[in-house]
Amino acid sequence: QSVLTQPPSVSAAPGQKVTISCSGSSSSIGNNYVSWYQHLPGTAPKLLIYDNDKRPSGIPDRFSGSKSGTSATLGITGLQTGDEADYYCGTWDSSLSGYVFGTGTRVTVL
Amino acid sequence: QVQLVESGGGVVQPGRSLRLSCAASGFTFTGYAIHWVRQAPGKGLEWVAVRSYDGSSKYYAESVKGRFTVSKDKSKSTLYLQMNSLRAEDTAVYYCTRAASSRSGNFDYWGQGTLVTVSS
Hints:
The structure holds 2 protein chains of 2 kinds. Chain A has strands spanning about 10, 20-25, 35-40, 45-50, 65-70, 70-75, 85-95, 100, 105-110. By secondary structure, chain A is mainly β. The relative contact order of chain B is 0.32. In chain B, the strands form 2 sheets. Chain B has a 6-stranded mixed beta sheet with strand order 2-10-9-4-5-6, with no helix packed on it. In chain B, strands 1-3-8-7 form a 4-stranded antiparallel beta sheet, with no helix packed on it. Chain B is globular, with a radius of gyration of 13 Å. In chain B, about 0% of the residues lie in helices and about 50% in strands. The interface of A and B includes residues 45 and 99 of A.
């Protein structure tokens, strides 16, 4: 049972922008760094954002992350068909003493 | 290059045990925490467990606490996930991934995953 809540799905046309929210608590997002992952079926998840807003080498700047209080947001601009995937936020939860993933959001390019 | 390779998955009956392996190469194994993450069929990602870089800390998800144990081979760069008292709900693809620390979510490299099916 996830303690991070995401919308089940978001969609937009190619070239447009989508944002995905991730809502947590003071023990999770409120006091820990947030990461975002892209997951395509049958493949390993891919790190998109870490430490709230940092992009690993090789991740285009179309992907951005932000955090405010107990919520975080992933933004994807210039949407491409290759961006169709499931996206998860994640963070450490100090109360649970464990890492937690969000419920996941399916991005559809119309 | 950095590689994480899981093995040991398969079909197992409820109540039985299975041990997964995560073989690491291309980086200093003792400099990273190794996490286990799973995805059940049709479900989202679920964090399972972590072993800190030096083995001094191990944390487990509530769903596996008391049944799963992480350990490291003394001489190899291999981490194990010992899974006991398996249940149908443990059926999933299991991934190992590395991070800078136990509490860090900078999971920059992942294995390809190994499928565990718990069924009679």
